[in-house]
Structure to design on (225 residues):
């Protein structure tokens, strides 16, 4: 158990819908990262937050957004969902930047 | 840009045999390197990491990896594989200036009894 929690574990929705994925980092960690794992793209970095502020952005679509709240939990919002958004979404946390990242169990999203 | 190559998509070994999974990275400075393991339906578990110092690093579950700057490699090894080691293994690099992990495409390990 890494100490990073993610909810829900599974999510099934329809195209055009909007979903929110939630992540709670390890106790004391200030950085939260979001990654997407798909069969065709592999594991890809989406976005990083540090103590409530956006710090780095990767291959994140404009339809996707994230935020980190004062209690340090983070949410990833995916809107106007397409079939191709079906993937496993991981959250990771670390104490700061350039440190070891610990991953949560992931949220498996299926868009029908 | 930094990149990670895992040339072996799928490897099959017999239980009790030794294992080496290959990883090559591309990055100008000294990278921070990681190996993660993903069991079916599970998240990513950290096996080991290299930041600096001793180039041979020990990890959990009896795994070790060696950083070789001259070969830009960070290969994962285990002297005797157990059936429970069957999983997908990912090598990753964290650059000195960015915060993101860049992953290789993974190597799926199958263990035969």
């Amino acid at each position: 158990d890494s100490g990073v929690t993610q909810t829900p574990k599974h999510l099934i929705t329809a195209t055009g819908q909007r979903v929110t994925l939630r992540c709670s980092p390890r106790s004391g960690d200030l950085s939260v990262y979001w990654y997407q794992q798909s069969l065709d793209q592999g594991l890809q970095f989406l976005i990083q937050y540090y103590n409530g502020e956006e710090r780095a952005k990767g291959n994140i679509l404009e339809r996707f957004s994230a935020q980190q709240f004062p209690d340090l939990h983070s949410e990833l919002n995916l809107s106007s969902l397409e079939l191709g958004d079906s993937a496993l979404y991981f959250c990771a946390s670390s104490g700061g930047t350039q440190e070891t990242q610990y991953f949560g169990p992931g949220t498996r999203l299926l868009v029908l | 840009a930094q990149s990670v190559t895992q040339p072996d998509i799928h490897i099959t070994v017999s239980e009790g045999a030794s294992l080496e999974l290959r990883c090559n990275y591309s990055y100008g400075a000294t990278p921070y390197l990681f190996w993660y393991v993903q069991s079916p339906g599970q998240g990513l578990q950290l096996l080991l990491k290299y930041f600096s110092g001793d180039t041979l690093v020990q990890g959990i579950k009896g795994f070790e990896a060696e950083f070789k700057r001259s070969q830009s490699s960070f290969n994962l090894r285990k002297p005797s594989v157990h059936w429970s080691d069957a999983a997908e293994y990912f090598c990753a690099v964290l650059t000195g200036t960015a915060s993101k992990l860049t992953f290789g495409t993974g190597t799926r390990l199958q263990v035969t009894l």
User: Anything to note?
Assistant: Chain A is about 0% helix and 55% strand.
